[in-house]
Amino acid sequence: MTTPWTRRDTVAVTVIGLLAAFTRFLGLTEPTSSGTPVFDEKHYVPQGWDMVRDRFNPVLGGIESNPAYGLVVHPPLGKQLLAMGETVFGYTPLGWRIMTALFGVAVIVFTFLLARRVSQSTSIAVLAGVIALCDGVLLVSAKFGMLDVFQVLFIVMAAWTIAGDMRQVHERWHDAWLAGKLETAGPYGPRLGFRWWRFATGVLLGLSLSVKWSGLIMFFGLLSSFWDLFLRRRYGVEKPIAGTLLRDVPPALASLVLVPVVLYLWSWRAWFASETSVYRHSLSDGTIAGSEWPWLENLPEPVAGWLYYHLSVLKFHASLTSSSGHHHPWDSKPWAWLVSARPILYYSATDLDCSMASGDGKCREMIYMFGTPAIWWLTVPVLLWACYVWLTRKDYRVIVPVIAFAAGFLPWLAAFDRQMYFFYATALVPFTIVLIALMLGNVAQKGGPVTWSWVNKLAGVELRWGQLAVIVYIALVVASFLYWSPILYGYMIPDSWYESIMWLPSWK
Question: How does DSSP assign 160-198, residue by residue?
Answer without folding.
Answer: HHHHHHHHHHHHHHHHHHHTT-GGGS-TT-------HHH
